[in-house]
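quick one before i forget lol
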Amino acid sequence: MLRTATHDGSVVTLVFADGTRARFHAIWLRDNALDPETRAPGNGQRLITIGDIPADLSLAAAEVANGDLQVTFQPEGKTVAFPAAWLRAHVYDRDHTHRPGWTEAGITTWESGLAAPCADWADVHANPRAKRGWLAAVAEFGFAKLTGGPTEPGSLLKVADLFGYVRETNYGPYFEVRTEVNPTNLAYTGLGLQAHTDNPYRDPVPTLQILYCLENSAEGGDSIVVDGFRAAERLRDDNPEGFALLAGYPARFEYKGSDGVCLRSRRPMIELSPDGQLVAIRFNNRSSAPFVDIPFDRMEAYYAAYRQLGEYIDDPAMGVAFKLEPGESFIVDNTRVLHARKGYSGAGSRWLQGCYADKDGLLSTLAAMEMAQPEAAE
């Protein structure tokens, strides 16, 4: 609830029930008005453009009514109510300074002590609470396992169906991960793979990857996941200048492993938003192209920071390891969590299938479930 509302022509100042004070501009309130002439009642989309708002807009009145805010705009003579809780959730009159490399609320960075978040196949398909918990784990930690699934080829597509759609690439709707003769990609050998993000040569990069186990009787081949955001935090704390170099200059990535395909991208290894929020990690030694966008006098320092980030990623104290059994899978946020594989022998068999999907679908499904089932979080 609101205690008081005072205003001049361009700003209203509110005091909430707990004494918190916040200011809102007239133009911001008019643009975000919640009335049905401004916002479509069914989907909340805005029905006006910025040009529809009078350039000489002002506040004619602002008062507390039943604990909420009611304002009148001139020259329109339009009166609109704003719920106090809505205003509290959208306060922008606050300190906006952040340390570079900050993460948004709800993200937890981790190292090797984390127990891999896990859910049961039948449970997430039948129980909305279980499904929501699994999706929430992916959003918070950047990965989660799924156990007890079927072992028929293509079963991974049913994982993507839980929240969205498969993103088809030149590899097809999904791809096989098993030993091949003359492979087009090192993933199709028994070699160990350094922790990496997939397909950094794409723009945009696939934001989710699903790996699904159909057979795994080979010796070795354990999966390892590493939190790239945590590695970036370590670099920022230990070497701020190096962090700034990897965030401030674009690396280059390239893939041309099969006929008719030549994929290239130019993006930083550590991507930040304009206000310094960690957005994405791109780290894949196999797909790195020559770096040509770093000034000559900063190239050696850039490589030193690159090496240091790689050392954190390779640090055994950073990784969570597990061996997938048939019918088990895991999903990673490919903009954040790197995945690796220990080498495996030629004896036995190891057959995984992989596919890509989009994180916005997962986050949308999770948000919709949170709105529909708020009690599930309790």
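fyi The chain has a mean pLDDT of 94.
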